[in-house]
Every structure is written in structure tokens, then in C-alpha cells.
Design a protein that fits this description.
By secondary structure, this protein is α+β, with helices and mostly antiparallel strands. The strands form 3 sheets. Strands 6, 7, 8, 9 and 10 form a 5-stranded antiparallel sheet that branches. Strands 1-2-4-3 form a 4-stranded antiparallel sheet. Strands 5-11 form a two-stranded parallel sheet. Helix 3 crosses helix 5. The two termini are 50 Å apart. The C terminus is likely disordered.
Amino acid sequence: MKTVETLNEGLKREYRVTITAKDIDARVDDEVKSIAPTVRMPGFRPGKVPPNLIRKMHGAALSADALNKAIDQGVRDLIAKEKLRPALQPAVTLGDGYETGKDAELTVALEVLPEIATPSIEGLKLERLTVPADDAAVMGKIEEFAAQMKRFEDAPKTRKAATGDQVIIDFAGSVDGVAFDGGTGEDMAVEIGAGQLIPGFEDQLVGVKTGDEKTLKVTFPDDYPVEDLKGQPAEFAITVKAIKVPGESKIDDEFAKSLGLESLDKLKELMKDQVEQELNGLTRTHMKRKLLDQLAASHDFDVPPTMVEAEFGQIWQQLEHEASHEEDPEAAKAELEKDKDEYRSIAVRRVRLGLLLSEIGQAHGVQVSQQEMQRLVMQAAQQYRPEDRQRFVEYVQQDALAAAQLRAPLYEDKVVDFLFEKAEISDREVTREEIEAAIEADDDGHVHGPGCGHDHDHDAKPAKKAAAKKPAAKKDAVKDEAEEEKVAAPAKKAPAKKAAPKDEPAAEEKPKKAPAKKAATKK
């Protein structure tokens, strides 16, 4: 194999690789030898078919397979010889005009990971904001839980339904006068104002009484999960069977027993554990953000453009999805376009932090154990149909890149925990409102990094530009970037692998909602 470097610019590399016809032909010979014992041909005993006849019968397939294996090995040899660390899968192109029996000319283009000096982890200082899980917080959680479990009581037949009431209806839906599948039902309970049905459905139930018959006119959302109903105007003929009003939920031992618990004290004990988990999550979110701010502020290096584009693509897809659910989608998308460079900077930050955390983890021996990896794979497999779960497990086992991407979030958390252990931490007790405000303070979309001129340890919410009301999409995306800080996975440094098989198991489809209900919005 001959290699010639044709491009070395920044992190971009390109090579011309020549695989000789002799090497490919030798691989064909190896293939012939491997299949010879299984070839059957009239006039020959099993395993005794001459190699030249096997070549004549299966030559095209054997040559193609040999060429693919030679290319795979050639790319691996190139990476090893040049000591390359690919950022993503190399792009391999076979030269035009290749014919069997000739040398194969390849163009291998890739981006390499930057050389990062071993990051210093000395001098990290963090403040840990803690919130006690006091009785008031626990009771607040119980009251919130009780509200979700509210029961409804029969109302007088003369009562007109109001927001918060539950209306029991029979319904029959139609589009252009034609009934559609799933559009008919009986005794459906609808809580007015709960927002569980398509826009306009619940609002038109305000004022109805038991025994009323009414036709509701609505329009299915554009993102409705049933293709034939997307954006379609529809009518629902309803009959009101009953009106129910919310009953009083008394929080006492009887309430706890209705949940299968011994007493209210036991319920408080369980709820306190839940509250503590939530508060600990807020504490970690704030600390992790401050840690990553410090790392981003003190490290600056070029990052692979393809990794940035891949990360930016994910961010932008989420933003456009969120913008499409605004009251004025076009205005929301136009507002996003103004901040496109800002979001690209966020993508750069994520990639840089991902590479940085990876370097720190490798330098200090942070690892994801085999047992932890097995647990990750089994958890991820649960999203597939039962008959596809084993195929998913085998796919992850065979594809290093898929396994690395699955491992990345846990690896990131383990590196962060390692850095927490090394940092000098001071504790300060605050209220839940204060820690949430501290977290929200960073949700202005500011991208922390070298030369940003920003106080990375701020807790006060920066002033926002007047008349710069961003669509909710922006806030959500930036919050995800800062709160969960899904940094671009260092797993992406895995060497080139073949694309995922086309028969990769499909995710298990969730049952479709009744047509009257709106499609769930992705969080």
C-alpha cells in the first residue's frame, strides 16, 4: 500500500492511498480458500472444486468483497501509520474508472482531533449551593401530588360546566362529513382547561349542562400523529352525560392509606426522599455549570468543523421544532435566524468541552466499567420492541461508534464527579427560589469562553436587551446547553467504522392517542 498526503490544513487531512492489484488478488485467493469447503458443483466431490472454477463462478462477488476488505484494512493501516486520531468517520472515495485487476486509488479525507495539552485541574474552586428539604417543601410536594390525583364528584344536573370541571361525554368525530378511525367514543372524561385535547375542544365545553348535545368545530394540529388528520378541520358531535366538580382532597392518614401506605408520616418520609433528590439535582446542575464555565474559560483550541456542524445541526433541529410550536412560528424562526451565530458558538463550546473532559478522563484513568456498560445497553434496549432488543444489543456490541455514543453521557458524569473531588468546594445554604434563580441567571444564551469578558462566577441574572423577547425555543435550548450541559460526546473520536446496518431495530411505536388528543410535544 502506498500513501501520499495531499492536504494538511488545520485539522483537515487528506491522503491518496494506492492498494495494489496484487494485494487485492491475494485477498481473493484467501476468499476462495475460505469458501472452497462449502462449494458444491456437479462432477466434483464436496471441497474438491478447483479454485479456478470457484473464481469463475463467484469471481465478481469475491472481488468486490476482497476490495472492501482491502479498503477497510488500508484505512486502518493509514490511521496507524500516520498516528491519526479521527474526529469522525473518514470519508473514503474510490477513484473513477477502477476495474478488477487494476490498482485501487483511494482518496481518504478526515478531520483529526486537536492536540490538547494535559489540562490542569489545579485551583478549581466551586460553591455548592444547598437547599434543605424542610417540612414546608415536603408538604408542598404532597399537596402538588394530591392535586394531580384529585377526584371529581357529581354536580347538579343544572350546573353549567366551568374551567376545572370534568365533563363526561359521548362523541363522534368527522372530517368533511365522513367519520374517521378512532373518532368515536363513549363516556370519555374531559377536564376543562387541562390541555389534554386538541386546541379549542375543551374551551367549547364551557357552559354545557348534563343532557346537552353540541357540535364542536376544531382543527387538528399540523404535527398530529395521524397523517390523514394533520391540519384538517373536523367536527365532533357530543352528548354530555354528566358534569363533575373537583372534590376536596384532605391530606391525612386516610389519603396516605388510599395510596397503599401505612400513614401520612410514611408518605412524608417517601416524599422527603423525592424532594431531596430534586434539590440535589439542582445543586449538581449549578455546580456542574460553574465547573464547565471555568474549564471553558481557561482552555482554547481549534475543534473539528465536522463535529461542530453535527452538534449545531442537533441544536438547530431542536430550536426549529420548538419555534414551530410558538403562537407565530414564522416570527419565532425569524428571531432564531438573528442568533444563528450564537448557537453555532454554543456548538463549538460543547465540542470543546467534550474533548476537554475526554482528555481529563484519559489522563486520570476515569473509565466506564464493563458492568456499567452492560447496564447502559440493557436500559437503552428497553425502548425497542421485545423482539428487537437482542438485535439492538448485538448492534451495539458490533459497532464501536454506537457503543461509544451510548457510553459518553455516563463517562462525562464520571469525569465531572472526579473534578468535583479535586476542586476546593465551599458550601452555602440557600432557598429553592435562590438556586433556581442562580441557574436561570445563565439562561440568557451567553456563551462562556476565553476572552468573553464575563464574570463566570456570577449569580445575578444579567440584564436582558429591551424588546429582545426570544421565542421559548431559544430559552429551552440554551437551558439544555447550560443546565444539563450535553457536551459533544468525546466518544466521537472512535476510529472509522462502517455505517449502521440498514436493518437496525426500529424503536417501539407508542400507542396512538385518541384522535381528539393533541400530539405530545418533545421536551
